Amino acid sequence: MKTILPGQTIGIIGGGQLGRMMGLAAKEAGFKIAVLDPTMDSPCGQIADIRIVAPYNDEAALEELAEVSDVITYEFENIDYEGLKRLTEIAYVPQGAELVRITQNRIAEKGEIRASGAPVANYVAAKSFDELKKEIEKVGFPCIVKTAFGGYDGKGQVKLDSIDDLENAEPLFAHSDCIAEAFVPFKTEISAIIQRNPAGDSYCLPIAENIHKHHILHESIVPARVAPAVIEKAEEAAKKIADHLNLVGTLAVEMFVLENDEIVINELAPRPHNSGHYSIEACSVSQFHQHVRAVCGWPLRKPKLWAPSIMVNVLGEHVVPLKKIITNYPDWSVHLYGKAEAKEKRKMGHVTIMTDDIEKTLEEIDSTSIWA
Ligand code: AMP
User: Fold this and answer.
1) Is 183 touching ligand 1 by the criterion CB < 6 Å?
2) How many CB atoms lie within 10 A of CB 238?
3) pLDDT at residue 277 above 90?
4) Which of 114, 112, 119 is nearest to 260 (CA)?
5) Residue, of 230 and 77, whose pLDDT is higher
């Protein structure tokens, strides 16, 4: 266990917006940032002190990152597990590689969540379509079949309403093993972002309520509009999982809330999360500052919510209309990540609005028609 101090260098694998916001938080305190990303002009590359431009699994590039960094972290989970594991032998990687191995594979992830004692939907794992056919009755219908590897934002999954739909799941096996899990008739989706340091101290950010559009996060509302008992269950489940995994750094725990206020864990992300961006303005410590504190071996700060907040994502198609109206909304904090090309559905930025009237602010967002 080490304490990393300002003036030392934090290496980040991945140059996306999460790396950029992590890097900006670290630079405020005087840390230096090194980033490994295949592109020169990545969102994090733009703010980094040292850029290593190479694929994430490039051995020489990882060695170079190890040489220039006093501590190494990552900003997304689809990095090469073997590369990260090698890195743990030649550099200080307090998060280790295990969490990435687990969260890259839905089967391993569900198994670990279950082992932690947190609730998951009933599921079966299948290596082949034939195995799925044999096992599916254990889950029943409706259910969702998901590829074990590589799916995100709703990609790599198929909903089956009855046995007649079974054939629709066959193409998924061309990608990887799959899991079939019971469809959860949730009323709300929420997320807990828990952060833990090597000493084992942890805090959850205030629980966010998440609204998706086309499987992509659209809005996060904080505090989540759920009963206090749900918040308690969410924090308790996140802590169980974090302790079970011996977490260092950040873990986002996405959950469903049922009509009866029970919760079911959907999935994990071993990094700062889109649903925690509101914390930059709205909390006494942002998820990015806290992540830096955790990986640098600093004591964590208890997150305090300054005001209820809404975060709304800015995708490619929202950038131009947002720029047209933004000067009319002095209370909107605009973040754009410096991505050159505003492709449709690509996450380009977000807006956070602190408010004392969530419903009115939701209406205000809708009234712009940008996110219609
Ligand atoms: P995922 O890729 O697992 O995050 O799933 C993307 C979205 O699909 C979730 O945010 C839910 O809206 C929906 N979804 C995933 N799994 C389930 C499930 N078991 N029951 C109901 N909806 C689900």
Assistant:
1) yes
2) 29
3) yes
4) 119
5) 230
In 31-70, DSSP assigns E strands to: 32-37, 50-53
pLDDT-derived band at 155, boundaries 50, 70, 90: confident
pLDDT over 90 at 151, yes or no? no
Whether the link from the prior residue into 43 is cis, omega within 30° of 0, is no
Could you tell me if the CB of 109 is within 6 A of ligand 1? no
The DSSP annotation for 99-110 comes to HHHHHTBHHHHH
Residue-level pLDDT at 150: 82
Beta strands per DSSP E along 66-106: 71-74
- Parallel, antiparallel, or unpaired: how do β-strands 309-315 and 332-336 relate? unpaired
State phi, psi for 118 to the nearest 5 degrees.
-85, 150
Q: What is the mean pLDDT of the chain?
A: 97
Query: Counting atoms of ligand 1 from 1, which one is nearest the CA of 183?
Result: 20
Question: Reduced to 3 states, what is the DSSP secondary structure of residue 57?
Answer: coil
In whole angstroms, what is the distance from residue 215 CA to residue 140 CA?
A: 23
Asked if residue 138 has its Cβ within 6 Å of ligand 1, the reply is no
